[in-house]
Amino acid sequence: MIDTDRITGAAKELGGKIQGAVGDLTGSHRDSAEGRFREAQGAAENVYGQAKDTVRHAADRAQDYAGQASGRAQDYADQAQDYAEDAYERGSHYLRRGTRQVSHQVAEYPLASLVIAGLVGFGLGLLVNANRD
C-alpha cells in the first residue's frame, strides 16, 4: 500500500516543476521561484511518504517473523509434550511389567524372596545407623 504523502508529494512536485517552467518561459521570477519552492515541498513530502512506507514494511516483516517464531516455538512445545507423554506411557508399561515379574518371582520362590527382603532391610538399617555416628 502506497502512502498518500507519496502521491500528494509527487503531484506537488510535478505541479511545481510545471509552474517553475512556465515562470521561466514567461520571465516571471515570482512564478519560477514559487514553482521551485512547491517542487521542493513535493519532493520532501514524497520522501516522507517513502520513509513511512519503509517503516510500515519493516514493521510488517517483523510481525511476520515474530509469527513464524511463535509457530516454531509452538511446534517445539508440541513435540516436547508428545515426547513426555510417550516417556510416561513407556515408564508405566515397564513399571507394570516389573511389578508382574516381581510378583511372579515372589509367588514361585517365597522363601528366597523373604531372605532377600530381610537382607535388603538389614543393609538399609546399616546405612541409616552409619549416618548417625
UniProtKB/TrEMBL annotation:
Per UniProt, residues of the CsbD-like domain are 5-57
Gene3D superfamilies tied to this protein:
YjbJ
State if Transmembrane is listed as a keyword. Answer: yes
Tell me which InterPro entries the record gives: CsbD (IPR008462), UPF0337_stress_rsp (IPR050423), YjbJ_sf (IPR036629)
Concerning SUPFAM superfamilies, the annotation shows: Hypothetical protein YjbJ
UniProt keyword Disulfide bond, yes or no? no
What keywords would UniProt list here?
Membrane, Transmembrane, Transmembrane helix
Question: Which residue spans traverse the membrane?
Answer: 106-128
- To which protein family does this belong? Belongs to the UPF0337 (CsbD) family.
Protein name from the UniProt record:
CsbD-like domain-containing protein
Native organism: Methylobacterium platani JCM 14648
